[in-house]
Amino acid sequence: MRYIFIAMKSSKRKTLLQPFLLSAKNRFFPKNKIPFRTLGVLIFSLAVCLVLYKVVVRVVTYFHSQNELGIILSLKIFQMAWITMFAMLVFSCMVSAVSTLFLSQDNEIIFAAPLAKSDIFFMRYVTTSIYTSWMMIVFSIPIFAAYGTVFKASILYWPLMLGAIISTAATATTFGMGFTVVLVNLFPAKRTKDIILYLSICFGIFIYIIFRLMRPEDLVNPDKYGHFIDYLSSLATPASPYIPAAWASNLLSYYLMDREIDILITALLVVTPLTLFFLGEWAMERWFLSGFTKSQESFGGYRSFFSRGKYKRSSLQWTFLKESKLFLRDSAEWSQLFMIAALVIVYLYNFKVLPVERSMFEEEYVTNLISFLNIGLTGFVVASLAARFVYPSIGAEGGSFYIIMSSPLSTAKYILHKYLFYVIPFTVLALILLVVSNRLLNIEGPMWWISVITGLIITWTVLAMALGFGAIYADFKAENRAAALGGIGAILFLFTAIAFEMAIIFLGGSPVYRVMRGWLRNGVMSAQDLLTLTGWILASVAISLFLALFFIRTGIRKLEASGS
Amino acid sequence: MDELNNTESNTSAGQNNTDDVLVIDSLTKKFGKFTAVDNISLEVKQGEIFGFLGPNGAGKTTTIKMIAGLLQPDNGKIFINNRSLVSEPQKCKQDTGYIPDRPYLFEKLTGFEFLQFIASLYNLEPETFSRNTAHYLKLFDLEDWQHHLIESYSHGMRQKLIISSIFMLEPPLIVVDEPMVGLDPKSARIVKELFKSHALRGTAIFLSTHSLEIAEELCDRIGIILNGSLRALGNLKDLQLAARLEHSDLEEIFLELTGAYELQDIINALRSG
Fold first, then answer.
1. Which end of chain A has less neighbouring CB within 10 Å, N or C?
2. pTM, whole model, 2 decimals?
3. Mean residue pLDDT across chain A
């Protein structure tokens, strides 16, 4: 009887996983073949893993070649990598778990079916864990493998490493799932999702700023090693025994250093995820229904807004209002502003701590060169942010896009309105990055103007390209704006934008060098140099206009052809 | 039946009757090898309610999306108020109000903000906006909810908001896909009365529905589409003749014309089972 019950349970669990497995199969292997796209993704991922592996091998080898402190430092970074991976997995699993457990669209079908809550927990656990941790696992393997190579580890290291990665990931996801079930019982699902999102963003900003303020560039400067002695002596101690991620790190560190396996830690790594899973199942039985009930009551219908503004007949004004309201009322969107603020602070801090005085060339030449290259760097930041905010802005209209397409507002005007909406904040951002970094580098004269003018040309063109690509590859079914980032269109946009920026910088190298050489030596610019510089700027404007119009027009044609 | 089709659809493009608000001429749409809409021709006059019926997957929504300017036809032409949808899309869209079957809206706007947005897209006069929004919000019991986010609205409330947004515009042509989905009986009654009163004032209404009751009650003429082709077109009497089912109601005619006459055998089998 007991065996029949177990067999029925396992067959139900198999059935529950079918939609996930079949969707994955249909997506990656339609008609039981390996399509070109899947093959491309596989080769690309393998290439990224290989590059990651090579880079980490080089960095760790560098540390090893220094002295004893280098080895300690490399192991400390090893430990930090484990803890960061663990923390990121816990946060991302919790954000996903709120969605998959409480807000998923198939919930009504699943929960109405005669299924035990433990079976539902199992299914959601497996799918959420795979969704949230596959990328982390795939890309952490080359990093930890590189340590094995540099430390010349024996063959046992590889199964130990794989087991430790899987166990740490499983611990993080079981903890995240169980904790989410309890949290949603205390707060409504949507509120919980927001809270976890803010916490994870704060955590990301914290890690980012701490890492930057540590000035890692000094670690490769042997002159400054003396300053780190005290710091490193504190690093030499093993990580806290209470953090599961530290167990994996300690287990592998001991093995790398002494070729010994700590049985207690190994046992902890095996038992913890299993224990947490059963605790999660228990929490599900105990609290799930009340949390799910709350999640359905939490639509905030009781809140009213000040929308009593006077109606004016301006589609431009209303597109602005619509875009800004949708952005500011979506916590997943506006909370990204904190991330951008942290990015800007760290970006500008980089210029403040730039060791230009150590350069073998004259300081003025170096600062002007940096200011020139900063145009490209600013362009890169603008392109990344445009990929996150501007590129998905057309697809983000979702099912409501029919409203725009069936209205008398032409597609071209709609795109122009969108462009004008985004061009203001992006121009301000680019100006802050360019003007403040020029100020920190003490840049004045022609270089200041060159950097600001070219920076703005690049910014405005990149925005147009983002909208163009966004229109060509609009995904009206994407769950949110961030989801669109993984698509082929976003990657193509980034490649094209960066190639365009590099072309502008590359073409400008010689004319800018000539003008600046004359200016720095004699304080004058020759007519011929000025002419070449003007020629470069005009050519940049022409290329920018061509690209902007080309992508926007292609996007408009694509939108009009496909409708909604 | 084919004769009926031919006589009804012989209006050639460019020589439209001035009463015709909507003229569809030889409209065809293919998705790959599948022909969703196959050479459909019809016209809808000023003040006329035209019912567009057909079984699931017959091509109703595809046709409607082409009229609303959301899909490009592979062949054929659409004229709205004697203007070609291809050459003057903005002017045609200005004259058309489209109510879809699924109420996708901007979730993070309030109902009132949504109405303002739609009005600005169609360049509606401020006086008309104030008068009509107050009227329709009250009519559909949405007054108390107008300053709440749309994400907190029920399916029926969303549908009522979309319907309000289109009636507010007072367009000469209203294209509706399944108008009563999700509406409570009171709202459904109001919508029916609105269709009738707007038609009386000259609005042309192109209405796709599964509800034969609604079609029978509201529509002046009916087109039945099957596998992408127009199977029959005319008023109830014309359809009775076409189906050779005089004195029958629309349900029997529909089942006969759409080839579902074997339904009676199924019903008998189910009853005996």
1. N
2. 0.69
3. 81
